[in-house]
Amino acid sequence: MAQLRLTDFFSRTKAVTGAPVKRGGGGRRLKAALAGPPEEEEEGAPVGLSPHPPPPPGSPRTPARGGSPVLRGLAGRKRSRREMEAEPPVGARPGEPSGKSARKKLELPRDAEPGPPVAVGNCWGRGCAASPGAEALKRGPALTVCPLPTQEDLAGLRCRLQRVKMLAQLAQLPPIPAWASTDLRSRLEQVRQLELRIREKKEGSGAAPGARPSGDTGAAAPAAEAGEKAPAYQRFHTLAQDQPPGLTLPYKFKVLAEMFRSVDTIAGMLFNRAETITFAKVKQGVQDMMRKQFDERHVGQIKAVYPTSYRLRQEKNIPTFGNSVKKSDYQLTLEPVLGEEEKVDGRPHLSASRLLERRKEFNRNLVNIVKQHHKAFLAALSPPMVVPEEKLTRWHPRFNVDEVPDISPAELPQPPREDRLTTAQEVLSTARGMLTPKMEKALANLALRTAEAGAGEPVVSKAPSPASTSSALKGVSQALLERIRAKEAQKLQALMTRDPQQEERLAMLGRLPAMARILRNVFVAEKKQALTMEMACARMAESYDAQMPPGEMEKHLRLFAELLPDWVGIHTIRTDTYIKLDKGKDLGLITERLTKAAKEAEAL
Question: Where is this region: Disordered (predicted)?
Fold first, then answer.
């Protein structure tokens, strides 16, 4: 029988629907293929007492190669290799790779395949998993498994319970001692005394005459900005400027001057149209023009530099035209201050000439502010220097212009606000009797610390310390040092009071020694005793290392004729101007004379 089952696949491959099989008789026709499934057990029969005992487990069989003959049609014909490769194996399971195998695999019966183990909760009695009727239990009622709590869950519950107990202990506040009210009163009395001391100190510093020069900016920017280091292009802005030395302004002052120009331009347009000038309109316009942030602090700085430029007010019921500001809210408004004579058709008018005058006035005020800091710097030198402000044409070489402190903004009008609490003392006095004693004590401590910090703040002097004698100068006569310092101070004072024309002449004198060699080479190359001024200027401009227009070069040639008339001569014949050079002069002596003339002019 086993042999029949193992070799039964030969008859399956040759079988044809409705055709006799070659080998064997009619009794051997595919019994296993035509045999029906086994009868199922009755539903009412108990386990193990079924009238039909389960059949014995079948022997393993080899799966058929060609599949079902009904679907294949005629199975006797020879199949091609493509059809054989395209057909999936009969016993292949989904998810497994299908490939051509040299050996057939035995296919076990379906009831003999290993299945998942039977759960404990599904067993009604002991040994049910090993009983032959275990399959019948699968159709029985399913029971839900209730997992027992593990040790990790119990540990988590214990931890949460312990945490709840700790929070309950922390919630129990200790009773307030009887001496708390007495201590609170004493601390409040200390706060009041410290506030009185601060007010007296402020009044005394404000009443002192000459404490600050008029128009002084205050000293430093807010603490938030003082702690931040400015970028390099701001700290060394003056050094990077390609312009002759003069009364240059710091970078932040130049930015403020440009902001004032933008504010004046926008305010002039709105004012001439009889439109209310609000800070919101000016802010948007200035930021669009400068691509920089503009806020109320800059308006305060403009007010501090040029107090008579604008009249500032807080107004409400101004049409906003859909802005985020409500009509009933207060807004900061600006109004240019104009004279009675600046009227057109009976109404004040801000003209372009007036805008230019206001801009120049603002720049003069900025220069005056820097002059005050420069004056303090000169007074702190050793020996001190005094230079009249009307004769000052440039800053001291050691005066760092970009380190001038920023302008402290003037106070702007604020909208009327009632019930506004700003300090801990005000909160404490307003909410007295409404807070718990613990909260009142905390507010009192905060007010006390704030008052102590304000009273104990030291006043830092901004005057630089006098120069001390270096260790390298020990043993040198003090009188000699004083003479050297006095001579240096005299030279620096002459440098700071030099006019621009004299400065330009000194620059030209410094270029003459190098130009003398080029001028002689031009005459030697041309092999002429005289050249026209246009030709000489063109040749000199081509040979000089720095680019210079012919007009500037002509000034240098005329300066040659002024300083060295025996070497260079300029002659005008009819409409042309000629320059003549004595090529027999020694060039070394000429250079020495020019250098000496430059030193003498610099010493003046």
Answer: 18-116, 199-227
Rounded distance between C-alpha atoms, residue 41 and residue 49, angstroms: 10
Residue 108 has pLDDT above 60, yes or no: no
Pair type for strands 530-532 and 347-348: unpaired
CB 506 within 8 A of CB 519: no
Q: Which residue, among 376, 394, 401, has the nearest Cα to 386 in the 3D structure? A: 376
Helix (H) or strand (E) holding 198: helix 180-207
Residue 173 in tokens: 């506040």
- Distance, in Å, from the CA atom of 191 to the CA atom of 195, rounded to the nearest integer, reads 6
Q: Report pTM.
A: 0.47
Return the axis-axis angle of helices 500-526 and 533-543, rounded to nearest 10°: 100
Instruction: Concatenate the DSSP letters of all residues of 35-66 into one string.
Output: PPPPPPPPTTSPTT--SSPPPPPPPPBPPPSS
d(CA 280, CA 373): 34
**Are 328 and 316 within 8 A, CB to CB?**
yes
From CA 492, how far away is CA 276, in angstroms rounded? 52
| Whether the predicted pLDDT of 501 surpasses 90 | no
Q: What pLDDT sits at residue 131?
A: 44
Alpha-carbon distance of 195 to 450, in angstroms, equals 10
| Contact (CB, 8 A) for 128 and 137 | yes
Residues in a beta bridge with 530: 580
Burial 25-42 (b: 16+ CB within 10 A, else e): eeeeeeeeeeeeeeeebe
- Of 70 and 512, the structure prediction assigns the larger pLDDT to 512
Three-state SS sequence of 293-357:
CCCHHHHHHHHHHCCCCEEEEEECCCCCCCCCCCCCCCEEEEEECCCCCCEECCEECCCHHHHHH
